[in-house]
Specification:
- This is Family 3 extracellular solute-binding protein.
- Keywords: Signal.
- With about 260 residues, the chain is an alpha/beta fold.
- It has 2 domains: about 5-125 and about 220-255, D-Maltodextrin-Binding Protein, domain 2 (3-Layer(aba) Sandwich), CATH 3.40.190; about 125-215, 3-Layer(aba) Sandwich (D-Maltodextrin-Binding Protein, domain 2).
- Helices cover about 35% and strands about 25% of the residues.
- The protein has 11 helices and 12 strands.
- The protein has helices spanning about 5-10, 15-20, 30-40, 65-75, 90-95, 110-115, 155-165, 175-180, 195-205, 230-245, 250-255; strands at about 40-45, 50, 55, 60-65, 80-85, 100-110, 115-135, 150, 165-170, 190, 205-210, 215-225.
- The strands form 2 sheets. Strands 1, 5, 6, 7, 8, 9, 10, 11 and 12 form a 9-stranded mixed β-sheet that branches.
- Strand 8, helix 7 and strand 9 (about 165-170) form a beta-alpha-beta unit.
- The longest helix is centred in the C-terminal third of the chain and has 16 residues, at about 230-245.
- The protein starts with a helix and ends in a 5-residue tail after the last helix.
């Protein structure tokens, strides 16, 4: 899932971070792994609005691929998990403010984000897709300049869409994006392809993918943690590597997204 615009710049740009009152944390005096083990819990954040990767089910539980990955990593580190849902456009600011310990929420690894956080992973690949109504006359990227394009606020897809010169409208998450497209309030949406394709198949939605070349893989998803924590980074990376090696990762991926997405 992914985040940009002035919000992205204010959250991720070094100077803008200072302007918004969010300062870069100094390197930790002690690696956070030690304190997490004492507490026995790691707090992980996600939007809760990105099915099937993370969403709230009928029992008001946060479930999906991301929570399952986070819980398995924590289990292998001897920790329990507390899941925190938060708005995507402020999620890095929350991490820097110590509201949670990691972001396991389908966050794209970008050079700009790496200025302020460290990434464990990547743990899956993301491919950008453009989706339109089945009866739409849109046939090219140029056609998109004559309509309104919906994106999730703060995602990398928002930045990309603005760079193309599209008329952009932002939303909180994928369910809202798809509803807006189906109701004709936007002419297209830009999102990672897997969750949209799964939702279209599940709901028989009148939506199709625009067949244009977008240059292959857009991003890879990583787990964001605060800088200055090499021991925590290693413990989480070791756990991720082990679950990929022993087949646990694939079991989780098959359950939530239907196959291997590394």
């Amino acid at each position: 899932m992914t985040n940009r615009r002035t919000v992205l710049k204010s959250m991720l740009g070094m100077g803008a971070l200072a302007a918004t009152g969010i300062s870069m944390p100094s390197l930790a005096l002690a690696d956070e792994l030690e304190s997490l083990k004492k507490k026995g819990v790691i707090r992980i954040a996600m939007s809760g609005a990105y099915p099937p990767f993370n969403f709230i089910n009928d029992q008001n539980q946060v479930v999906g691929f991301d929570p399952a990955i986070g819980e398995e990593i924590a289990k292998r580190m001897g920790l329990k998990v507390e899941i925190i849902t938060t708005a995507w456009d402020g999620i890095i600011g929350g991490l820097l403010a110590n509201k949670y310990d990691a972001i396991v929420g389908s966050m794209s690894i970008t050079d700009e984000r790496k200025k302020v956080v460290d990434f464990v992973g990547p743990y899956y690949r993301m491919r950008r897709g453009i989706f339109i109504a089945k009866d739409s006359k849109i046939a090219s990227l140029d056609d998109l300049k004559e309509t309104t394009v919906g994106v999730t606020l703060g995602e990398t897809h928002e930045q990309w869409a603005r760079e193309q010169g599209f008329n952009v409208r932002t939303y909180k998450g994928l369910p809202e994006l798809m509803l807006e497209l189906e109701n004709g309030r936007v002419g297209a949406i830009v999102n990672d392809d897997i969750p949209v394709l799964l939702a279209v198949a599940k709901n028989d939605a009148p939506i199709k993918q625009l067949e244009v070349d977008l240059g292959g893989v857009a991003d890879q998803a990583g787990i964001a943690i605060r800088k200055g924590n090499p021991e925590l980074h290693k413990a989480m990376q070791d756990a991720l590597d082990a679950m990929q090696a022993d087949g646990t990762y694939l079991t989780i991926a098959k359950k939530w997204v239907g196959g291997d997405i590394r």
